[in-house]
Design a protein that fits this description.
Elements: H1 3-7, E1 20-24, H2 31-42, E2 45-48, H3 55-62, H4 69-89, E3 93-96, H5 102-108, E4 114-120, H6 123-132, H7 143-149, E5 160-163, H8 168-180, H9 182-192
Parallel strand pairs: 1-3, 1-4, 2-3, 4-5
The structure holds adenosine-5'-triphosphate and D-gluconic acid.
Keywords: ATP-binding, Kinase, Nucleotide-binding, Transferase
GO molecular function, one term: gluconokinase activity
InterPro entries: P-loop_NTPase, Shikimate/glucono_kinase, Therm_gnt_kin
Length: 207
Amino acid sequence: MSVSERLEPPPPPAADEVGAVVLAGVSGCGKSTVGKMVARRLGWAFVDGDDLHPWKNVYSMHHGRALTDADRDPWLERCADLLENHVANGVPVILACSALKSRYRRRLRRDAETLLIHLACSREELIRRLGGRTGHFFDPSLLDSQFAALDPPTPGDGTLLVDGDADMEEVTNDIVRLITRPADRAARLAAQGTGAASALPGGGERW
Ligand SMILES: Nc1ncnc2c1ncn2[C@@H]1O[C@H](COP(=O)(O)OP(=O)(O)OP(=O)(O)O)[C@@H](O)[C@H]1O
Ligand SMILES: O=C(O)[C@H](O)[C@@H](O)[C@H](O)[C@H](O)CO
């Protein structure tokens, strides 16, 4: 991380009323699966960020080529525009979007009604899930490149951490609570104050 990035002020705190949620994390953490479950539960819209990638990006990932910052640039713009439109029109939305770097997360959080939630998973669980997934364009051999690109959310980042290794129902319940209860959001942020991994059950290295 560069000095100028470190000196930037932390993002604004999320508003009491959440209008949009970005479910972030590396490939296989459950963004799409759990995002749909949360959206169904809340009666919100769900958009898969994978559907907003330029075709060239999908082609690259399918052929085992990791995306660059330049590849992600137009995609992040589409994601940010989508969030902004939903908030402006009062149509709450869950967007599944990897948002791997802190500057990507800052770019997506254009207003205080947008909440970022990062699904943190162990490497073993991610390998197991990607190995078992069929019919998806993402080449599982790219997982290490996702780890390399990731800036893990830090205590000052304003991104909430969720245990992505947990059972799908549990993950869904946790996220619904964080979206609907400001006190739970504040408690989670405070728990993260001591460091990302220690805020999650089981500890260990998480991505
Ligand atoms: N909490 C969970 N427990 C067990 N399996 C899960 C869980 N969440 C997701 N899965 C499974 O893991 C695989 C990956 O999930 P999913 O496609 O939702 O991840 P993703 O983060 O959206 O990945 P990508 O970014 O590559 O699209 C799927 O087969 C899904 O069924
Ligand atoms: O930023 C990225 O490298 C991409 O968004 C990836 O995370 C993929 O889109 C996703 O994992 C495949 O579904």
